[in-house]
């Protein structure tokens, strides 16, 4: 399983521009406004290769919408998030997504007293004419931590997939490793796109908002990703291309354990087992004996 963490991911000016965009988006949503319903008529951003007509998807509430950034926008970004995606696409951290046709992105804003994001895998499900479904996953999934200081629930990634989802099981049944990445501003976490993951409970006393930008890298556009709304387009010319920061690699603290079954109850409760902490910006990998 590949799980990689880089600190100081973006140069300060690029990170500040991203923070301003994200805060404006969060304020919009907190006020009960649907960011995609900005005008009396539907007006999407100027079309780019990889954009398609959203059709009936436009009628779906957008408070949890994901947006599509086609590959051409990596070098010609239309907003601060696309500029950041372009910078990340040029980093070594996303080397496994060199063939990506674009990236799906969304903003997640979670208060310290809210229930954390449950475990899941990111996927696109296509229904076939015969009634069966085909499940696909992004090449890479990634998290850019925007706010939260050094607090809030850690992101947890299991060395398991849902390839046996039809049987209601994860594969393998017990993971050989579990990684927990603590929150730190301007940190970039990237992992295999088909991994079981979620957010751990906020048990470190942190009070505030845990804000992240989630970016999934796809070889084909997922059905649920919407075309960028016109209101998000920065009409400034020339367009600003974001620059990477130091991208300092963070090595995990390795914790060797016995059987995964010994820690399963803690993980099921979305809590890190005793023996290590992923608070204060820690990055921990639990390694389990084979069963």
- The low-confidence parts are 38-42, 52-63
Q: What's the helix count?
A: 3
Helix content: 10-25%
Structural class: alpha+beta
How many strands, which pairing sense, and closed or not: the largest β-sheet? 8 strands, mixed
The count of DSSP E runs of length 2 or more, i.e. the number of strands, is: 15
Outline type = globular
Per DSSP, what share of the residues sits in E-state strands of 2 or more residues? 25-35%
| Overall tally of structural domains | 1
- Compute the average pLDDT: 84
Provide structural commentary.
This protein has 291 residues and is of the alpha+beta class. The protein has one domain. The protein contains three helices and 15 strands.
Summarize the model shown.
By secondary structure, the protein is an alpha+beta fold. The chain has helices spanning 12-30, 80-89, 264-268; strands at residues 3-7, 66-70, 102-111, 124-127, 133-136, 140-147, 155-158, 177-181, 188-192, 196-199, 209-218, 225-227, 248-249, 253-256, 283-287.
Helix-strand layout with pairing:
Blueprint: E1 3-7, H1 12-30, E2 66-70, H2 80-89, E3 102-111, E4 124-127, E5 133-136, E6 140-147, E7 155-158, E8 177-181, E9 188-192, E10 196-199, E11 209-218, E12 225-227, E13 248-249, E14 253-256, H3 264-268, E15 283-287
Parallel strand pairs: 2-12, 14-15
Antiparallel strand pairs: 1-9, 1-13, 2-3, 3-11, 4-5, 6-9, 6-11, 7-8, 7-10, 8-15
Helix pairs in contact: 1-2
List keywords for this structure.
15 strands, five-stranded mixed sheet, 291 residues, alpha+beta
């Amino acid at each position: 399983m590949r799980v990689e963490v880089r600190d100081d991911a973006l140069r300060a000016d690029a990170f500040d521009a991203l923070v301003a965009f994200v805060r404006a988006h969060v304020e919009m949503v907190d006020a009960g406004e649907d960011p995609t319903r900005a005008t009396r008529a539907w007006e999407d951003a100027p079309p780019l290769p990889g954009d398609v007509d959203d059709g009936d998807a436009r009628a779906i509430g957008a408070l949890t919408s994901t947006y599509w950034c086609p590959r051409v926008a990596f070098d010609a970004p239309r907003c601060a998030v696309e500029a950041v995606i372009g910078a990340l696409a040029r980093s070594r951290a996303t080397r496994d997504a060199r063939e990506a046709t674009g990236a799906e992105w969304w903003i997640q804003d979670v208060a310290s007293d809210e229930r954390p994001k449950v475990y899941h895998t990111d996927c696109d499900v296509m229904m076939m004419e015969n009634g069966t479904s085909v499940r696909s996953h992004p090449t890479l999934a990634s998290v850019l931590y925007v706010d939260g200081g050094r607090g809030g629930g850690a992101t947890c990634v299991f060395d398991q997939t849902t390839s046996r989802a039809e049987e209601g099981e994860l594969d393998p049944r017990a993971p050989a490793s579990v990684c927990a990445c603590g929150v730190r501003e301007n940190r970039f976490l990237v992992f295999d796109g088909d991994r079981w993951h979620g957010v751990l409970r906020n048990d470190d006393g942190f009070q505030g908002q845990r804000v992240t930008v989630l970016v999934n890298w796809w070889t084909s556009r997922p059905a649920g990703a919407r075309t960028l709304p016109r209101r998000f387009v920065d009409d400034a010319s020339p367009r600003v291309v974001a620059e990477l920061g130091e991208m300092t690699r963070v090595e995990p603290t390795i914790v060797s354990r016995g059987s995964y079954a010994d820690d399963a109850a803690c993980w099921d409760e979305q809590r890190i087992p005793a023996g290590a902490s992923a608070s204060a910006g820690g990055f921990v990998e639990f390694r389990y004996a084979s069963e």
